[in-house]
Structure formats: C-alpha cells, structure tokens
Amino acid sequence: MKIKDKEFDIYLNTSQIEERISQLGHQISNDYAHCTPLFVGILNGVFMFASQLFKNLSIQAEISFIKLSSYKKLNSSGQVTQLLGLNETLFQRDVIILEDIVDTGTTMVQLLEVMDELGPKSVEIATLLFKSDTLVEKLDLKYVGFEIPDRFVVGYGLDYDGLGRNLTDIYQLKS
pTM higher than 0.85 for the full model? Predict the structure, then answer.
C-alpha cells in the first residue's frame, strides 16, 4: 500500500479489528451495566473506532467529540491544541475517553488534567492501539484494543498527512 511517498504493509485486518472492538464493547457494557456513561472521542482518528465500539455496546450511553492535535506528518509535536470543545457537562458523570492510539501519553495526560477540573465521577480510557514502548507519561489504560510496536501505522481512522483514514485495515510503515 502506498500513501504519498511512503510504503505500508498490512498489520491488522478488518476482522481482527472488529473482533477485538466487539470484545471491548462487551467488557465496557458489563463494567457500566448500571450507568449511562459519556464517551468522549478524540477526533479525527477515533471516528471509526468509536462507531464500531458503539455498535457493540448493550448499555445506554452518550457520545461527544473533541478535536485535539499533536502530530505533524509522522511525529508527535509534543504540543496539544484543543480545537473543538465539549458541549456536555462532565460533572458527576462516568466518562470514557476514546482514542485511536496512545503512544507517548502526552495528549492524554493533558486532556485528563482538563477533564479533572470539570468534576467527573470517573474517567477511563479506551484506545484502539497502544505503543507501550513509547509511553513517557504514567497512564492507566483500562481498555486497550491492541498493544503494538513502535512503528507508524495508518488506516481505520489513522492517517499519514491527512490520507489513509478510510482504509478498513491497519497498515504499518515498511522498514
């Protein structure tokens, strides 16, 4: 698979991704059986994960989206910019943050600090992908789809310079 000037190999296919998301949906439904959690998805990359996860929930839940940015081309800039905010109140709500990928954890730590000031009852994190080798911040990730190596990935909502989000499989950069 070629996107712009980079070559990618398939890493996770659609059926693997959807099966794991189904398992996460059942786990979250069990954990929140007597609650109505608010899911907060981080755009742009989370849209496919959020959609598939919601199809697999058996509980009542709400969803909202915020837009944060920390990537330029292939690398994290380390600077997080909130572009679109929440309209829902988080006060005394059970909140589950949805992220496409957690690598350094910088984005998530900054977001958790902002959310904590809004008084939620609880906050958990659900991420489709987790690069444990690159984590520099201490994070408790309750729901992890796949732990992956430190390789650049694209597809299933993740992009390379704006392209590739529509791919239904996840590809990794060729070495």
Answer: yes
